[in-house]
Amino acid sequence: MTMRCLLVDDSIRFLDAARTLLERDGTAVVGMVSTGAQALAHAATLAPDVVLVDLDLADESGLDLAVALTRTVPCAVILISTHRFEDVQELVAASPARGFLHKAELSGRAIREVLGREGAADAT
Fold first, then answer.
1. What pTM does this model have?
2. Residue 50 and residue 115: Cα distance in Å, rounded?
3. For the chain, N or C: smaller number of CB within 10 Å?
4. 68 alpha-carbon distance from chain centroid
5. What are the residues facing 25 on neighbouring strands?
6. DSSP per position, the chain
């Protein structure tokens, strides 16, 4: 079964690159949005398996969005960033996200690995 993914990032350039990469890797990108409000609306209507949320969303917090998503939509959330995991590890561990991926490590396989792990402490 193909994994359905919603991408949330305020960089159109990153969204386009991530979509291309993930679709080549067999992941269905069902939507790409740049704000928390858009993410909540699209997640509710598109029913993705996983939502990839950038930690730094312009004037919004990706951490706050992760909380809102997990409270309102039955999906897994993975936080993404260009920050090193070591720099955000405590924030990720305190969040309801299933884990963390550095943007440079993004792939369908990496997403599946995070989803197969227990808790954010095992993030890559």
1. 0.89
2. 9
3. N
4. 13
5. none
6. -PPEEEEE-S-HHHHHHHHHHHHHTT-EEEEEESSHHHHHHHHHHH--SEEEEESEETTEEHHHHHHHHHHHSSSEEEEEESS-HHHHHHHHHHSS-SEEEEGGG--HHHHHHHHTSSSGGG--
